[in-house]
Amino acid sequence: MRGIRFQAWLAQHPLLQWSRKELILAPLEPILHPSSPRLWWLGLFIFVGQPLFGWIWSTWLPQPYENPPLRIIASLLGFSLMTRRINHDPASRLTQRLFGLVFWLELPVLFSWMYLCNSGSAVWLATMSVMVLIYYHATDWRLATLGTITGGLVAWGLFKEIGPAAPPVPESQRLVHAVVFAFSWASALVLSLSSANLRREHLSSTLATMGIMAHELRTPLSTAALIGDAIQLEVQRQPDNPRAKQLEKLAFRLHTLVRNMNHQIDTQIANAKLMQLPRHTEQVSAAELVRNVVAAYPYITSRQRECVKVVIHEDFVFRSSAAQFSQVLDNLIKNALHSLTAADSQYAPGALRIEVGLQRSGGRIAVADEGMGIEAKLLPHIFKPFFSSNQGTGHGLGLAFCQQVVQSAGGSIHVKSEYAVGAIFTIELPVVG
């Protein structure tokens, strides 16, 4: 009841509704346009740019204050983004956290420090304005806003405690500087907000279109199911017909096809809600969930069903949505079976193995297959929307949906794979109790 009242009250305040949507509900993007090459080039720009500008402002166009050791430290921070361990998976928490820390130190902290130490010179006034625009272009506007404020305060505190004896910004220029900073910040904020909205609208429109198309496929499938029923009825009326067995097999195959297609439609409609996934708090048993999904999956052949082996080391309970997590496992099983098919597998028992257990005080669900695997160069991209490792056979939403659902439950999903060997998708979840 309270939730309904809150929603009704919120609907009467458009500004609060917009603020809630932008500040709380909008997905956080710690790294904008993440990719391994982008991280590498950003790291290179910092690694080379810091010593280069240190030389420019100390030798070629000298400024009142320059600090070579500080430039070297900042350059090494940029180099960290160039390492394979960091940039190979832009979606990992380690990469996102390091990226956020590096850019916070490099931009608002370092630039504010240099601005204060140089008494707000014309060079550093312009540089600070550019810094704000770069920061909002590199990360989510909420993180950039928080980082700009905290970074400026940290730099100011350090300057007061250990900074050089630099004169303050002339009083006659302080208002001018405030106006320039305000203009830069407002411009960066508006551009970042509009870009974030545009990205979400494009993605939502595309997903909605896919959901509608998937839903519309139910109409011809209903017709096919009716044809199958008519064939079965005809067989019952004429049991002595020499073609009765063939017709019965045809009706069975038709119904199996309809059931499989409806299952796929359910999956695609769920995937199409990628941007509208609510948080759920129902308690879900991992072992029960896995058993139910494996039993209900519409396998094409009995050999497919027999190749799936479920191993329950230890059950655990987590908070999420059983329906959404069923779609997650459906997606992973579907991909594993496609991989086995691509590898010309004979579907030996255990070729697709699902394990449930505990590790490091958390729950673990692993889906491993002995299929074709995934090429190393594709691994950093497989959780991105619309990226598919099965070129021409997938829309690339399934794994993005899986990641969103797992993260909404407070967990994480990772993959290890070797091409032509197989793949292991591991879901780690916080345990209830």
TrEMBL record:
<dbReference type="InterPro" id="IPR036097">
    <property type="entry name" value="HisK_dim/P_sf"/>
</dbReference>
<keyword id="KW-0808">Transferase</keyword>
<dbReference type="InterPro" id="IPR036890">
    <property type="entry name" value="HATPase_C_sf"/>
</dbReference>
<dbReference type="GO" id="GO:0016301">
    <property type="term" value="F:kinase activity"/>
</dbReference>
<keyword id="KW-0472">Membrane</keyword>
<dbReference type="InterPro" id="IPR003594">
    <property type="entry name" value="HATPase_dom"/>
</dbReference>
<keyword id="KW-0812">Transmembrane</keyword>
<feature type="transmembrane region" description="Helical">
    <location>
        <begin position="175"/>
        <end position="193"/>
    </location>
</feature>
<dbReference type="InterPro" id="IPR003661">
    <property type="entry name" value="HisK_dim/P_dom"/>
</dbReference>
<feature type="transmembrane region" description="Helical">
    <location>
        <begin position="143"/>
        <end position="159"/>
    </location>
</feature>
<dbReference type="InterPro" id="IPR005467">
    <property type="entry name" value="His_kinase_dom"/>
</dbReference>
<feature type="domain" description="Histidine kinase">
    <location>
        <begin position="212"/>
        <end position="433"/>
    </location>
</feature>
<keyword id="KW-0418">Kinase</keyword>
<keyword id="KW-0902">Two-component regulatory system</keyword>
<protein>
    <recommendedName>
        <fullName>histidine kinase</fullName>
        <ecNumber>2.7.13.3</ecNumber>
    </recommendedName>
</protein>
<dbReference type="InterPro" id="IPR004358">
    <property type="entry name" value="Sig_transdc_His_kin-like_C"/>
</dbReference>
<keyword id="KW-0597">Phosphoprotein</keyword>
<dbReference type="InterPro" id="IPR050736">
    <property type="entry name" value="Sensor_HK_Regulatory"/>
</dbReference>
<keyword id="KW-1133">Transmembrane helix</keyword>
<feature type="transmembrane region" description="Helical">
    <location>
        <begin position="122"/>
        <end position="138"/>
    </location>
</feature>
<feature type="transmembrane region" description="Helical">
    <location>
        <begin position="39"/>
        <end position="57"/>
    </location>
</feature>
<dbReference type="Pfam" id="PF02518">
    <property type="entry name" value="HATPase_c"/>
</dbReference>
